[in-house]
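Much of our argument rests on the idea that a fold can be written as discrete symbols. In the encoding step, the backbone of a single protein was reduced to a row of integers, each denoting a local shape. This step matters because it turns folding into a mapping between discrete strings. For completeness, the protein is quoted in full, as a sequence line and a line of structure tokens:
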Amino acid sequence: MSPEPVRVGRKRPLPSCPNPLFLLWLTEMRDHAKEKGLKTQYVYQKAINSLKKYPLPLKNGKEAKILQNFGDGICKILDERLQKYYRENGKVDGPSQTFSLTFLLFLQRKAGGDAGNEKGGKKKREYVPQKRSGGYAVLLTLYRHSQLPGSKGFMFKNELQTEAQSLCDKSFTVPEPGSKYTAWSSVSTLIQKDLLLKTHNPARYSLTELGLALAERLESGERGRNDGQEEQERSEAEDSGDRPVTVVLTVDEDKDDEHEGEDTRKQELVKELQRNGITFDIRKLNVGDFLWVAREKVTPVPGQLRPPVAKELVLDYIIERKRMDDLCGSIMDGRFREQKFRLKRCGLHKPIYLVEECGLAAAHMSLPESTLQQAIVNTQVVDGFFVKRVQDVKESAAYLTVMTRYLQKLYQNCTLFCHSRELEGNGDFEVENGVTERENPRCSLISFTEFNYGAVKNKCQTVRDVFARQLMQISGISGDKAAAILEHYSTVSSLMKAYAQCATEAEGEKLLSSIKYGKLKRFVISVFSLKSFHFMSTTCIRPDVCSHWNLAFMLCFSLRPFSLGS
């Protein structure tokens, strides 16, 4: 028996996985199962992980049974595909899979081209992704990134999704209502069409030669179609000073709720909004649960990777959502009055209380229903909030949907201006000449950044702010009354000086009772004025000397415990 001839020549370098065929087929099966939402995708992924760790080449699928997570079903599928591959491309001498993956893809493309030419001479149509689709956005983003000086030649998934979102009409992260697919699902098609290359872990995405050529054509077509139109729109915008905007609902992402089921209810609310086709953002709000932002529509500048930063103005509507059991708890621990006070001072003129019924949980609340109903009435009549009563989460989502569409229509032809809260007067907004807001909505708005920073709960406070919060801890002193007192006496020291200048005791007792508050200009209750005068006149504590004077002030009026973080 003659010995086998010795092969002379340079050894071909082994790929990172010595079984690239099996790895390729398992990856395709996993992606196919993932697109259909099948749980077998996790089985294929475990098999892929085991195969990557195995350092030796496998001759067939039966040998792969020695690996973990490889059962009879997977091994049989691999054997069938391997035999099919041998029939189409011929069997390679030596170990069956020790050639490079690049050469494998070349053989597959060649075999596919030959098969296409044999079928009636019909040439296979080239794959071109639809404009503004997920594949279109991914190809253009990777191409533009590769043209930047110092580009690393690849992008990670998170940065690719972020940069490509502006070029796509669908979301890369959130599926559309009634569907389980996002714009990112088209990436598997790009990989199968040999337009996109996925390597490493974490995954790195880069264009192949075919993908680079297609992306160049898409980019040239994009510039040819849009250059003239963009110049015209830019010149019109500069002449008129008007920028188109879109109204977006903003949902608070972090709420310190005391009920365990609140996260579930919030997820249900988000799903209902998605079913209703409402565009919304989830971000941190320092006050309120929902509001609406008018966001400027910006056009990506040719040659720049990132589009210009869009300006965001906050519309005048803000919603605080309360379930009846949460309302009961907030009344008992003092949050209810403080939240209303913060909503009044947030700079938005249309606060709304969205009150949800709590069903069977209403029988286990610590306060009687009459007390809760009175608190709701006071919120609307005394505090001037608009109160909306709903039965459950679905009705809350329906109300938010109706409000969003109403505001989108209300502001669609309006020119919006940005102003600073520091330039505002008393904060009240009156429509001139009897024109209703439906015809003339408020168009001078504050930016989202300024609004959210101004509503920070535990930011550094002035002496005036601390004095206001101390006054509100006193029973019978609302936000309007505290604000009226602060207009005359902004600190405790100024109030003490005013008492010291009173000629008689009767004059001191009536000092605060002559102050008017609110829109109806009512007088502050005389009982508080009387208590305050006797405490100030009889105590020997000096506020500039005793660091515990604030505690003494609260104890005099039998207040609840107070902290700046409450």
User: Anything to note?
Assistant: The first helix runs from residue 20 to 35.
